[in-house]
Amino acid sequence: MGFELGDVVGFVFSPTDTDLLKYFLKPKINGEEVSCNFIVEKQIYGANCNPWDVLDSSTPWIASGKSKKIAYVFTRLNDKAPLVRSSVVGNKSLSGSGSGVQRRKQYVKLGGCGSWNGLTGRMPIKDNNKNVLGIRRVLNFQINDVSGALRNNFDFTKLGHYKLDEFVLAGCHDYALCRITLDTSKTPMVVNLQNDDVSNIICSMQSLNVLGKRKSFQAQDCCSGPTKLLCT
Protein backbone atom coordinates (compact mmCIF):
# COMPACT_ATOMS: atom_id res chain seq x y z
CA MET A 1 0.00 0.00 0.00
CA GLY A 2 1.36 3.42 -0.93
CA PHE A 3 1.00 6.55 1.09
CA GLU A 4 0.24 10.12 0.17
CA LEU A 5 2.42 13.17 0.52
CA GLY A 6 2.25 14.47 4.05
CA ASP A 7 1.05 11.21 5.63
CA VAL A 8 4.24 10.95 7.69
CA VAL A 9 5.34 14.05 9.58
CA GLY A 10 8.91 15.00 8.71
CA PHE A 11 9.17 12.47 5.89
CA VAL A 12 10.99 13.63 2.75
CA PHE A 13 11.15 11.46 -0.37
CA SER A 14 14.79 11.77 -1.41
CA PRO A 15 16.06 8.49 -2.92
CA THR A 16 19.66 8.09 -4.04
CA ASP A 17 20.58 7.31 -7.63
CA THR A 18 21.09 3.67 -6.64
CA ASP A 19 17.69 3.57 -4.91
CA LEU A 20 15.94 4.85 -8.02
CA LEU A 21 17.44 2.13 -10.20
CA LYS A 22 17.30 -0.77 -7.76
CA TYR A 23 14.02 -0.27 -5.91
CA PHE A 24 11.86 1.59 -8.44
CA LEU A 25 12.97 1.31 -12.07
CA LYS A 26 14.04 -2.35 -11.98
CA PRO A 27 10.74 -3.59 -10.44
CA LYS A 28 8.80 -1.43 -12.92
CA ILE A 29 10.60 -3.01 -15.87
CA ASN A 30 10.13 -6.50 -14.41
CA GLY A 31 6.37 -5.97 -14.30
CA GLU A 32 6.17 -5.73 -10.51
CA GLU A 33 3.86 -3.28 -8.80
CA VAL A 34 5.64 -0.12 -7.71
CA SER A 35 3.46 1.29 -4.97
CA CYS A 36 4.77 4.81 -4.55
CA ASN A 37 2.67 7.93 -4.94
CA PHE A 38 5.77 10.05 -5.41
CA ILE A 39 6.48 8.57 -8.86
CA VAL A 40 4.03 8.90 -11.73
CA GLU A 41 4.09 7.66 -15.31
CA LYS A 42 4.03 10.26 -18.07
CA GLN A 43 5.46 10.63 -21.57
CA ILE A 44 8.31 13.12 -21.25
CA TYR A 45 9.82 12.83 -24.73
CA GLY A 46 7.96 13.43 -27.99
CA ALA A 47 6.57 15.98 -30.43
CA ASN A 48 3.64 16.98 -28.19
CA CYS A 49 5.42 16.82 -24.85
CA ASN A 50 6.00 20.34 -23.58
CA PRO A 51 7.15 19.85 -19.98
CA TRP A 52 4.70 22.44 -18.62
CA ASP A 53 1.83 20.50 -20.23
CA VAL A 54 3.03 17.02 -19.28
CA LEU A 55 3.89 17.96 -15.70
CA ASP A 56 0.47 19.35 -14.88
CA SER A 57 -1.44 19.77 -11.62
CA SER A 58 -1.66 15.98 -11.19
CA THR A 59 2.11 15.76 -10.77
CA PRO A 60 3.26 15.21 -7.15
CA TRP A 61 5.91 17.91 -6.99
CA ILE A 62 8.23 17.88 -3.97
CA ALA A 63 9.53 21.22 -2.71
CA SER A 64 13.31 21.60 -2.60
CA GLY A 65 14.35 24.92 -1.13
CA LYS A 66 12.69 28.25 -1.85
CA SER A 67 12.63 28.17 -5.63
CA LYS A 68 13.00 24.52 -6.66
CA LYS A 69 10.65 21.58 -6.84
CA ILE A 70 11.27 18.01 -7.97
CA ALA A 71 9.12 15.45 -9.77
CA TYR A 72 9.88 11.75 -10.32
CA VAL A 73 8.49 10.26 -13.53
CA PHE A 74 8.59 6.90 -15.28
CA THR A 75 8.68 7.49 -19.03
CA ARG A 76 8.74 5.17 -22.00
CA LEU A 77 11.69 5.77 -24.28
CA ASN A 78 10.85 6.28 -27.93
CA ASP A 79 11.70 3.53 -30.39
CA LYS A 80 13.59 6.06 -32.45
CA ALA A 81 17.18 6.73 -31.52
CA PRO A 82 17.70 10.14 -29.92
CA LEU A 83 18.93 12.93 -32.13
CA VAL A 84 22.68 13.26 -31.70
CA ARG A 85 24.16 16.48 -32.95
CA SER A 86 27.64 17.93 -33.04
CA SER A 87 28.18 20.97 -30.84
CA VAL A 88 31.07 23.35 -30.29
CA VAL A 89 32.59 23.14 -26.82
CA GLY A 90 35.42 25.64 -27.17
CA ASN A 91 38.68 26.45 -28.88
CA LYS A 92 41.54 24.01 -29.00
CA SER A 93 45.18 24.79 -29.79
CA LEU A 94 46.62 22.91 -32.74
CA SER A 95 50.38 22.12 -32.72
CA GLY A 96 51.09 25.15 -30.59
CA SER A 97 50.02 27.66 -33.21
CA GLY A 98 46.67 28.91 -34.35
CA SER A 99 43.39 27.67 -32.96
CA GLY A 100 40.66 25.28 -33.93
CA VAL A 101 37.23 24.23 -32.82
CA GLN A 102 36.67 21.24 -30.56
CA ARG A 103 33.38 19.45 -31.09
CA ARG A 104 31.50 16.77 -29.23
CA LYS A 105 28.35 14.76 -29.82
CA GLN A 106 25.38 15.88 -27.75
CA TYR A 107 22.53 13.62 -26.61
CA VAL A 108 19.26 15.34 -27.52
CA LYS A 109 15.63 14.26 -27.02
CA LEU A 110 12.60 16.01 -28.50
CA GLY A 111 10.20 17.64 -26.04
CA GLY A 112 7.30 19.52 -27.63
CA CYS A 113 8.38 22.97 -28.83
CA GLY A 114 11.88 22.37 -27.49
CA SER A 115 14.42 19.71 -26.70
CA TRP A 116 16.13 18.07 -23.75
CA ASN A 117 19.84 18.61 -24.38
CA GLY A 118 22.52 16.50 -22.76
CA LEU A 119 24.83 18.31 -20.35
CA THR A 120 26.82 15.20 -19.47
CA GLY A 121 27.77 11.88 -20.97
CA ARG A 122 26.65 8.52 -19.61
CA MET A 123 27.58 8.23 -15.94
CA PRO A 124 27.55 4.66 -14.54
CA ILE A 125 25.65 4.02 -11.30
CA LYS A 126 27.12 1.15 -9.27
CA ASP A 127 25.95 -0.85 -6.28
CA ASN A 128 28.03 -1.58 -3.18
CA ASN A 129 29.77 -4.44 -4.99
CA LYS A 130 30.83 -2.13 -7.84
CA ASN A 131 28.38 -3.77 -10.25
CA VAL A 132 26.90 -1.35 -12.79
CA LEU A 133 23.16 -1.00 -12.19
CA GLY A 134 22.53 1.52 -14.93
CA ILE A 135 23.46 4.92 -16.24
CA ARG A 136 22.52 8.51 -15.54
CA ARG A 137 22.50 11.48 -17.87
CA VAL A 138 21.79 15.12 -17.06
CA LEU A 139 19.81 17.19 -19.57
CA ASN A 140 18.22 20.62 -19.58
CA PHE A 141 15.21 21.89 -21.50
CA GLN A 142 15.60 24.47 -24.25
CA ILE A 143 12.78 26.10 -26.22
CA ASN A 144 13.52 25.81 -29.95
CA ASP A 145 10.17 26.92 -31.40
CA VAL A 146 9.18 30.19 -29.76
CA SER A 147 6.01 30.48 -31.85
CA GLY A 148 4.95 27.08 -30.53
CA ALA A 149 5.58 28.20 -26.96
CA LEU A 150 3.44 31.30 -27.56
CA ARG A 151 0.35 29.39 -28.64
CA ASN A 152 -2.82 29.52 -26.54
CA ASN A 153 -1.95 32.90 -25.04
CA PHE A 154 0.68 31.27 -22.86
CA ASP A 155 3.47 33.23 -21.16
CA PHE A 156 6.37 30.77 -21.26
CA THR A 157 8.71 33.33 -19.68
CA LYS A 158 7.17 32.57 -16.28
CA LEU A 159 8.06 28.90 -16.45
CA GLY A 160 11.49 28.69 -14.89
CA HIS A 161 14.31 26.36 -15.87
CA TYR A 162 13.82 22.60 -16.25
CA LYS A 163 16.65 20.14 -15.58
CA LEU A 164 16.29 16.37 -15.95
CA ASP A 165 18.31 13.47 -14.55
CA GLU A 166 17.57 10.43 -16.73
CA PHE A 167 18.16 6.97 -15.22
CA VAL A 168 18.26 3.90 -17.47
CA LEU A 169 18.74 0.34 -16.23
CA ALA A 170 21.72 -1.57 -17.64
CA GLY A 171 20.65 -3.71 -20.60
CA CYS A 172 17.15 -2.24 -20.82
CA HIS A 173 16.35 0.85 -22.85
CA ASP A 174 12.54 0.76 -22.99
CA TYR A 175 11.90 2.75 -19.83
CA ALA A 176 13.64 5.52 -17.94
CA LEU A 177 13.07 7.03 -14.53
CA CYS A 178 13.47 10.80 -14.61
CA ARG A 179 14.13 13.18 -11.75
CA ILE A 180 12.97 16.55 -13.04
CA THR A 181 13.87 19.76 -11.25
CA LEU A 182 12.03 23.02 -11.95
CA ASP A 183 13.86 26.12 -10.72
CA THR A 184 11.57 29.14 -10.78
CA SER A 185 14.40 31.52 -9.85
CA LYS A 186 15.86 30.96 -13.33
CA THR A 187 14.48 31.81 -16.74
CA PRO A 188 13.86 29.29 -19.53
CA MET A 189 16.58 28.58 -22.07
CA VAL A 190 15.77 29.56 -25.65
CA VAL A 191 17.69 28.54 -28.78
CA ASN A 192 20.09 31.17 -30.17
CA LEU A 193 18.20 34.39 -30.74
CA GLN A 194 19.35 37.47 -32.57
CA ASN A 195 18.15 40.92 -31.53
CA ASP A 196 15.60 41.01 -34.40
CA ASP A 197 14.14 37.72 -33.19
CA VAL A 198 13.75 39.11 -29.68
CA SER A 199 11.89 42.15 -31.05
CA ASN A 200 9.52 39.88 -32.95
CA ILE A 201 8.87 37.85 -29.79
CA ILE A 202 8.08 41.01 -27.83
CA CYS A 203 5.61 42.14 -30.51
CA SER A 204 3.97 38.71 -30.57
CA MET A 205 3.61 38.59 -26.81
CA GLN A 206 2.25 42.13 -26.63
CA SER A 207 -0.31 41.35 -29.33
CA LEU A 208 -1.38 38.30 -27.31
CA ASN A 209 -1.56 40.36 -24.13
CA VAL A 210 0.81 37.94 -22.46
CA LEU A 211 3.19 40.44 -20.95
CA GLY A 212 0.54 41.97 -18.71
CA LYS A 213 2.05 44.47 -16.30
CA ARG A 214 5.62 43.39 -16.89
CA LYS A 215 7.65 46.43 -17.90
CA SER A 216 10.42 44.97 -20.01
CA PHE A 217 11.40 41.92 -21.96
CA GLN A 218 14.98 41.45 -23.02
CA ALA A 219 17.53 38.82 -24.02
CA GLN A 220 21.06 38.32 -22.73
CA ASP A 221 23.92 36.47 -24.39
CA CYS A 222 22.07 36.64 -27.71
CA CYS A 223 24.87 35.35 -29.87
CA SER A 224 26.66 32.91 -27.60
CA GLY A 225 24.62 29.81 -26.98
CA PRO A 226 21.08 29.41 -25.67
CA THR A 227 19.49 32.69 -24.66
CA LYS A 228 18.00 33.39 -21.26
CA LEU A 229 14.79 35.39 -21.53
CA LEU A 230 14.27 37.83 -18.70
CA CYS A 231 11.11 39.69 -17.73
CA THR A 232 11.17 42.36 -15.05
TrEMBL record:
Domain (NAC) ranges: 7-183
InterPro entries reported for this sequence: NAC-dom, NAC_dom_sf
Transmembrane segments: none
Keyword Transcription recorded: yes
Example GO BP: regulation of DNA-templated transcription
Coiled-coil parts of chain: none
PROSITE patterns named among the record's database cross-references: NAC
The protein's name: NAC domain-containing protein
